[in-house]
Design a protein that fits this description.
- With 359 residues, the chain is of the alpha/beta class.
- The chain contains twelve helices and eight strands.
- A hairpin with a 7-residue loop joins β4 (131-136) and β5.
- It is globular.
- The N and C termini lie far apart (49 Å).
Length: 359
Amino acid sequence: MKLSDTPAESLDELIKDDLLPNEEFRKQVKEAIDIICTFLKERCFRCAPHGVRVSKVVKGGSSGKGTTLRGRSDADLVVFFTNFTSFQEQLEFRGEFIVEIRRQLEACKREKKIEVDFEVQKQRRENPRVLSFALRSHTLSQEVEFDVLPAFDALGQLTKGYRPDPNIYVKLIQECEKLGKEGEFSPCFTELQRDFLKSRPTKLKNLIRLVKHWYQQCKMKSKNNLPPQYALELLTVYAWEQGSSEPDFNTAQGFRTVLELVLKHQDLCIYWKKYYDFQNPTIRQYLRGQLAKRRPVILDPADPTGNVAGEEPQRWQLLAREVKVWLRYLCCKNLDGTPVSPWVVPVKPPHYAYDRVAL
């Protein structure tokens, strides 16, 4: 059943029947990811010059966070190199590492060293940020798309409950300001982005799936002129935190709340203090500037330099127009035809008033 034709009380059923990934295919994707991770860690740079060493490969994106949609088989793999000793070096040399990864993938394809087939996308930039390729094999029911991103290992080995040393963010801020590259180094914080979502209740992850599915419906109509999907994922987390925070909740209410927040995009100023806060003077001064930017502002909880809402408010205006249409559909109405009541959620977190004193 189409989302627009699904009654509000049946949204959980829609998620279960149509949006949750097939268990067998999820297992296949995991095996494909393991193959690529092993290749990147053990084979890819074995004969490379300059003693290239991979410290770890981290699965990010929806696969890492546990919010994959059925039929959308993609995986982000962030490769951390000991050879990068700063954010600037990542920016300068990542292109060389991507060329080497591509070269080794194509060599494996020719020599049939791995029982899979690769189709590597052509690079459009001189210093690309990511290597994209599709993987196929006789064990996969459909191809899996991979994005591989080289990154500076700024965090090192993480332990449970890890909180970064503020000096890591001080260096990040200083280099971003020097290079004019805010948000450029978010792959370095993939583990924190993943952990921010991974431990959340299953039903919240399912609500994120529903919002992503709705977003894809809107995107088909509006092409690529909408805000980043990651911003909608974070908006969903925020809506749940402020409106419910319970592991079991009314899915239709959660969905309606996210749509209402999109309508209020001109006032959104959302951030978290899980990994960084206002205690350090450099970070505090930087956050002052970030939170004073034109709305909407949605700061990446793992990277204060990333306003994932984007710099183009007109994209949110387009999405808000879509929301007004969707509010007339069954998925936003009760059985008696009345609108589903959203949670009461502020456009700024409750601690914003306190933080203004620090700002």
